[in-house]
Write a structure and sequence with these properties.
Layout lengths: L21 H31 L11 E3 L4 E5 L16 E3 L31 E12 L6 E4 L4 E2 L1 E6 L2 E6 L16 E3 L12 E12 L11 E2 L4 E4 H39 L8 H24 L5 H28 L5 H20 L10 H29 L6 H15 L1 H6 L5 E2 L6 E2 H28 L3 H5 L1
Antiparallel strand pairs: 1-12, 2-3, 2-4, 4-10, 5-9, 5-12, 6-11, 7-8, 7-10, 13-14
Helix pairs in contact: 2-3, 2-9, 3-4, 4-5, 4-6, 5-6, 7-9
Length: 480
């Protein structure tokens, strides 16, 4: 008898060794097999779950690499510099690596870096070369491509191993014919994919860049601003489409505003049928038309390849800008019906002539042709013409506010459109000119014009209601 004391009791047992019989062994073996089968049956669902929880195997491909360099760079021009055997060891180096979040100041293209004007070559225009050796290893049968830089001043040719692969601009004659720089994609299918060294291929990529004199006013101008990219053809094509999307998004607002301006101009011209003695509607329609053409021509230039830089300068800068400034001045003068202001018509006509001539003489096609004093005179003509247009607008706005309650409805429209008309002067005063919501550039002018569209529509609609009231028969006339 063992007394229970509340503590564990340890017993010492001496085992007795007994030889098991064959029947006992068979029973033990059967029990082991049953236990093993039971364990497998229990663990099988958990093994399925474990397989379902296993990480998904992903094979990543279609890679691209930005060719930030450092590139070998040299100003000047010599077609021998496209030769992969040319010794460029004495050239300076240029790194095209952009700072985080960097973009251009126009449509928001990412990866933007300053050009050669900010890298020790200020005031230089003409040819320059970029050279870079790359070693590429790609799977057999994979197509490669190169995405050209979407921001370059002002045209370029690309050579790979000394062979011309393509260009942006027409390189014929003494100087290239320049269009807008657009996203471009160059196939590398015809180049050997291996030189026998572990499936690797070494390429010499060379860019022959030409900058026009019209870009000299930008302190960061010159050469390549966004690094080209090499990679699998499908991935390069996707990048190419993304860059086009950014380019289109950057100017689609211009097209929409141009369409709204044309519709508002048609509305203004229709009002003339109610008041043919008032020239305000004709001037307003003309001003809206000239402004719409100017805004739309920016999209035409950057989306298409049939208008050269010189053509854009002639249409937009030489003609449309002076025309819309003059017509807006006349439109507001007529709208406010300012008395004793015939002198404004004479001043506007003189300013228009001076402005057009000065713009024409200062354009890039005359660079280096005229003496310095004439170029300075043309520059002063442009500056003073614009300032005098500002003064006329201020005078008209001030005198317009004294013409009655209705004129106060026109003041917001006048101020908003002036933000776009005199954007250059506002920028010189330090007013911020562009924002990048969702990575797309939206300018101060675009915001102002969007608000102006609403203000002008309300103004024209109120004037239409006035005409409707005048045309409605009175109660006495209705009774008759």
């Amino acid at each position: 008898m063992v007394e229970d004391s509340g503590r564990p009791t340890f017993l010492s047992i001496t085992p007795t060794v007994v030889q098991p019989s064959r029947a006992v062994l068979r029973n033990r073996l059967a029990r082991v097999l049953i236990a093993a089968i039971t364990c497998l049956a229990i663990s099988f669902p958990s093994r399925i779950v474990a397989l379902e929880d296993a990480p998904v195997q992903i094979s990543l491909g279609r890679s691209t690499v930005e060719l930030n360099g450092p590139w070998k760079f040299h100003i000047g021009d010599n077609l021998r510099w496209s030769d992969p055997n040319f010794d460029d060891s004495s050239w300076e180096t240029v790194d095209l690596t952009a700072s985080p979040g960097a973009h251009d100041d126009d449509v928001g293209l990412t990866g933007y870096v300053p050009g050669w004007s900010a890298r020790g070559h200020s005031g230089y225009s003409g040819y320059a070369w970029y050279r870079l050796r790359v070693t590429v290893q790609a799977p057999a049968g994979e197509s490669l491509a190169l995405a050209g830089p979407p921001a370059v001043d002002s045209a370029y040719q690309i050579f790979v191993d000394g062979k011309l692969l393509g260009s942006a601009g027409r390189f014929a004659g003494r100087s290239p014919t320049v269009f807008s720089i657009q996203p471009r994609m160059f196939a590398l299918d015809r180049l050997p994919t291996s030189d026998g060294k572990d499936g690797k291929r070494t390429l010499l990529i060379a860019f022959r860049v030409w900058m026009g004199t019209w870009d000299l006013g930008d302190p960061s101008a010159g050469g390549i601003h966004i690094a080209p990219v090499i990679g699998e053809a499908g991935a390069i094509h996707a990048r190419y489409l993304m860059q086009w999307q950014q380019t289109i998004a950057g100017y689609v607002v211009e097209v929409l505003e141009a369409l709204v301006f044309i519709l508002l101009g048609a509305m203004a011209w229709c009002l003339r049928s109610f008041d043919r003695a008032n020239p305000a509607y004709l001037w307003l329609g003309a001003a809206l038309l000239f402004t719409a053409l100017y805004r739309a021509n920016q999209a035409v230039f950057f989306w298409g390849q049939f208008e050269t830089v010189h053509g854009f300068e002639l249409i937009s800068v030489v003609l449309l800008v002076p025309l819309y400034l003059a017509s807006w001045t006349m439109a507001w003068r007529a709208w406010f019906r300012l008395p004793r202001t015939d002198w404004i018509r004479i001043v506007v006509a003189l300013l228009l002539a001076v402005y057009i001539i000065a713009q024409f003489l200062s354009r890039s096609w005359f660079y280096g042709v005229f003496p310095v004093w004439l170029n300075r005179t043309a520059g002063l003509g442009i500056t003073w013409s614009r300032l005098l247009f500002v003064v006329l607008t201020v005078v008209i706005a001030y005198r317009g506010t004294r013409q009655g309650r209705e004129t106060w409805l026109a003041i917001p429209a006048l101020l908003l459109v002036s933000v776009g008309l005199f954007a250059q002067e506002l920028s010189q005063l330090g007013v911020k000119g562009i924002w990048f919501p969702f990575g797309t550039g939206v300018s101060r002018t675009q915001f102002a014009y969007a608000a102006f569209d609403v203000a002008l529509f309300v103004l024209l609609w109120c004037r239409l209601q006035v005409f409707a009231e005048r045309g409605r028969p009175s109660a006495a006339q209705a009774g008759v």
